[in-house]
Write a structure and sequence with these properties.
GO terms for molecular function: snoRNA binding. Helix content is 76%, strand content 0%. By secondary structure, it is mostly helical. Helix 16 runs antiparallel to helix 17 and helix 26 packs antiparallel against helix 27.
């Protein structure tokens, strides 16, 4: 092994001598490079190889290349690149080849090699990397697409790109993304040939020796790809994806027409088809020239376009009366309403249209829970409070099990300061199951704190402890403790704490809150603090190191504390803490003893 490493280091000497001779590196730096290279070589020649060692070696070589590049730019020296950089590049490729040969399944390693090749313009090497990588990872369409795009865009070889896509489709005959990118590639190829032909014609050159097929120039290859794909891949999403790609090219009108006809014929009942057809009305209007038109005329044209879109949507919800179809219609209306405009008339028209569509969907019983929330928010933003109350009530009738829907209704009532808030809270907790009701109870007590008497609020807190699940009651206990201290003082909160401690579970914040309350008293008693810490440690002593350390600090710093107790607390912590927490506790305790914590 040592002989092999020595040989590798000797192979470096010519490039290092050149670096020193041309003044890019000093003799001291050359020696440092040799030492580092020697250490890295030994690591990758061991019997038990580690991926990290190869990555570190590659990173070191890449950093070295970057440093050489910067030094060259600084001194303005651009010669001897074959003797210096070429040697390092060859070594990095060898390291990558060894690493990817050993860890074939690591896609990130392959992609790092690809990125390196692109960065240093190693086209021949990159072609080999793609070939090897795709032989191993043929099950990943994204890698095929990456390789084909490189062939098309960097090497300008549409033939190689087409060959890669055809190979990929043998492995993934029903992959929509592969077909989309293949379709795009064929259109790019056609566009490239059209530009070449146009330039030759402008230069009045003889096209006899160049074979420009009219079919290819008109995107016939892309049409074949589309037809083949549409037989294998079902779904309107694919049709819309290829249509959006075709629209990027100005010579595909016939192809777009064919895709559109297929879309309407095969997916007439799909909401996405109608959504596209409706939104298309906006684009058709925008194709007309808009120069020398007044602002009022532009607003009028936009309003007309939106009306045409809505006419298509109205037809759609009649032909396909589903929740998804109404969602598409409402989403369109909301998008138009949220668009900025200086015309108050247009904004008002958009608002009225949106609210009208919401009402129609509600009457058809085809409005989802999420859309009810959006409707309510829109009504509140538009100061239509009475309508908001009516809609909120209807929504909770339809989605009586939804906590969020009840929350929304209650917030509306609270915001409007209605008298029936308490009644609505009672109705909500009656309909909703105990699990997940925490948001309702927190909202109730927050509202009660600001509106009702102490007795009523305390009654709500007491009810919440029994009505919520044990895990959710933890939060209510914390809130109850805090509210009691703020409103009834120390003695009452101490009694409440003792009472609440009778029923598990607890949170750490529950105990910390009580410890903080005790410390805020003028006559803070260590006896009480010990009680609270001991209760907390019974629950969380095995999983929390900070709690033990805080207890020790309290004994050391409190006027009534007993520093002699710290030893026994430390011993108990060592016995009680689990796993790595013992080591963590020891480290922190040492820092505490030395005054660094």
């Amino acid at each position: 092994m040592a002989e092999r490493i020595e040989q590798r280091l000797e192979d470096r000497i010519p490039e290092l001598e050149q670096l020193e001779r041309v003044g890019l590196f000093t003799h001291k730096e050359i020696r440092a490079v040799l030492r580092k290279a020697s250490a890295l070589e030994y690591k990758i020649q061991r019997r038990a190889l580690r991926k990290e060692d190869f990555i570190n070696y590659i990173q070191y070589e890449v950093n070295l290349l970057e440093l050489i590049k910067k030094r060259r730019a600084r001194i303005g020296y651009s010669f001897k690149k074959d003797e210096i950089e070429h040697s390092i590049l060859h070594r990095v490729h060898s390291l990558f080849n060894r690493a990817t040969g050993k860890w074939k399944d690591d896609v990130q390693l392959w992609l790092s090699h690809v990125a390196f090749c692109k960065q240093w313009n190693a086209k021949h090497q990159l072609s080999k990397v793609f070939s090897t990588m795709l032989a191993i990872h043929s099950n990943k369409p994204a890698l095929w697409i990456m390789a084909a795009k490189w062939e098309m865009e960097t090497r300008l070889s549409s033939e190689s790109a087409r060959h890669l896509f055809l190979r990929a489709l043998r492995f993934h005959p029903e992959c929509p993304k592969l077909y989309q990118e293949y379709f795009r590639m064929e259109l790019m190829h056609a566009e490239k040939q059209r530009k070449e032909k146009k330039e030759f014609e402008q230069a009045k050159m003889d096209l006899g020796e160049f074979n420009y097929s009219e079919e290819i120039l008109n995107g016939e290859m892309a049409r074949i790809v589309y037809r083949d794909a549409s037989q294998k891949i079902k779904g309107v999403e694919f049709q819309l994806a290829v249509l959006s790609i075709a629209k990027l090219f100005d010579f595909t009108q016939d192809l777009q027409k064919e895709i559109l006809e297929s879309l309407q014929a095969r997916y007439a009942d799909d909401p996405l088809t109608w959504d596209y057809m409706a939104r298309r009305e906006l684009e058709l209007g925008s194709l007309q020239p808009t120069e020398h038109t007044t602002k009022q005329k532009k607003v009028s044209e936009m309003a007309q376009r939106e009306e045409r879109c809505c006419a298509v949507f109205d037809e759609a919800v009649g032909a396909v009366p589903t929740e998804d179809m109404w969602k598409c219609y409402i989403t369109f209306c909301l998008e138009r309403y949220n668009r900025k405009t200086n015309s108050e008339e247009l904004k008002q028209k958009r608002l009225e249209r949106t609210l009208s569509v919401f009402s129609k969907a509600h009457e058809s019983n085809l409005l989802s829970e999420a859309l009810y929330k959006q409707w309510l928010q829109l009504l509140l933003d538009s100061s239509l409070s009475e309508k908001a109350v009516e809609v909120a009530e209807a929504a909770t009738r339809l989605f009586s099990q939804s906590v969020e829907m009840w929350q929304m209704r209650l917030r509306v009532l609270i915001q409007l300061e209605r008298d029936d808030v308490s009644q609505c809270f009672e109705e909500a907790v009656k309909h909703v199951k105990s699990k997940g009701t925490l948001p309702l109870w927190t909202l109730w007590v927050e509202w009660s704190e600001g509106t009702n008497s102490k007795e009523d609020t305390e009654a709500v807190y007491q009810r919440s402890l029994h009505a919520t699940t044990p895990a959710e009651s933890v939060t209510m206990k914390e809130m109850y403790l805090d509210w009691t201290y703020r409103n009834s003082g120390y003695k009452k909160v101490k009694r409440l704490f003792t009472s609440l401690c009778e029923n598990r579970p607890f949170s750490l914040d529950f105990f910390r809150k009580m410890i903080q309350i005790e410390k805020e008293q003028e006559s803070c008693k260590m006896l009480h603090l010990r009680e609270y810490y001991e209760r907390a440690l019974r629950e969380f002593g095995s999983t929390n190191t900070d709690l033990w350390l805080d207890y020790i600090k309290e004994e050391l710093s409190h006027p009534q504390g007993k520093p002699e107790n710290c030893g026994s607390i430390h011993w108990r912590a060592m016995k009680m803490l689990q796993g790595d927490l013992v080591e963590d506790f020891v480290s922190k305790y040492t820092l505490l003893q030395t005054g660094h914590l």
